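Thread: zinc ion complex, take 2
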Amino acid sequence: MGSALDRDGSNDGDHTPKKTNQNITRHYEWVASHQSNDEAPIEVILNNRADELATESRQNAAEDLQRVEPKQVFMGAKASLFINGHNVTKELKSSLHTALYGKKLKTFLIGKYDWDEDTWSSIDWKSLQRAIKGKQGMGKVAVIKLIHRWQPTNKHTQRNERKKISAQACNACAEIDEQLHYLRCKSKYFNTARTYAWKRLIEYMKTYKKEESLLRVIWIGLQNWVYADFTGALPKSDEINNEQYELLCKAYEHQKIIGWKHFLLGRISRYWSEFYLSRTPQGPVQEGKVIAFGKSLVEAGWIYAQYVWKAHNDLGHGEKGGYSIKDIKSIHNCVKQIYSEVKENVSAEDEWLFSQSEKIKLKETVPNLVGWLERVLLCFDEKDRKKYEALYKTQYMIHRLCMKSIYA
Ligand SMILES: [Zn+2]
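Output below.
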């Protein structure tokens, strides 16, 4: 098209269409725009027609954007709901609920967690809301139990049974099994569980794995909180500039004020998203990307907490409890198959997993067996896992068992 040329009529920029199709032979003809159609060659007529169509669709699009759909107020209705001067026409129940209890809930939470107004408003509530909306069925129930601290810990389940206080203790250490105790339990078993949970979190965040500084800062925050030692310095890598580094530190500090345990419950600082915004190129998809990031970060926290909870649950269930005969059979089958198929192919570094003493340990309890299988899986990377049927089967079985105990 003539109009696609540079303003001065020259053709300095190469505007020849780049698309190629082997089945079609094209030839290009340059024509000046805005010529009369009279006795003009076919190229000029076609160019004029193309200009007309472009103008028409531009005008149509502008009109469409201008059109404002009137709010549906049902004039014939006997009653209409107004909240703060706004007519509510959809989601009546939740709008009413928020209007009635929203303020009370805020006061309640601020009191319960010892926050103040600033801390409250520095929490990324929108991402939390989006993540909850995305959950369904039992997954939603499990998340709600986690967020509101209603998980059936020993304290929770034994309190009403008139049993001795020792029954409320954690199965791995002597401390009382309070809500979220498992996230900071001092038992070695939970150290392993937390490391494994962190791997799951990283796996989940793989879309954002280039944000190494971010992930490292979150890891430091969690570690510092778990071991009650806020001394770790925040790393500054070359991949982020000073401004971004400051935003990252700000997010870290605010998360500390909100509480790192709340990070795992989905109450994340809104500065994480601000950091990510500063790292995302401007453009039409920028906002969508940042929204998706916030939601993913909330979900990643839940994944971490739920995997440690799973380990806690396994421990509480003891040798067989919580596992059906069928489950135990498939666990044993996996162990057998791994011994026959994979044993010869482990690296020297991981050979200890197949040593005689490990074999004896395998006879212990179901959680130990699952733990052993998980460690075997970690020895092989994703590509290797696909090579062996035994590993593929094991991964599937562990995934199924995890889902079962998370949502139990
Ligand atoms: Zn404990």
